[in-house]
Amino acid sequence: MADTEVAAQNAEFTEAEDAGGAPGEENLDVLLDINMPITVNIGSTEVPFRRLLQLGPGSVLQLDKTIGQPAELRVQDIKFATGDIVVVDGCFAVRIREILGMETTVEGSMEAAE
Asked: Which domains does the chain have, with CATH numbers?
């Protein structure tokens, strides 16, 4: 590599103006309009790969939850609520049963990371 000189200059910044209101409040409105995908987990199961390859239309997989147990609601694989599966206008829906506290949500995110 050839020796080349780089000219550096000092940067001058102007004073930031106070927009008023609480700090970060103007950014909160932007965040409140963001859509977050929610995943509803009604159960899970494990099957051998051999069985997975045999699945086809009409196959039934038994899940680990029974009727009446709450479904888990997750955002980015972090459990934040539980609810009951209901039908609204012919579509499945979830009635929120419980919003989990911060400590439960943090524990769930730690489990997901493992």
From this structure: 37-113 (2.30.330.10)
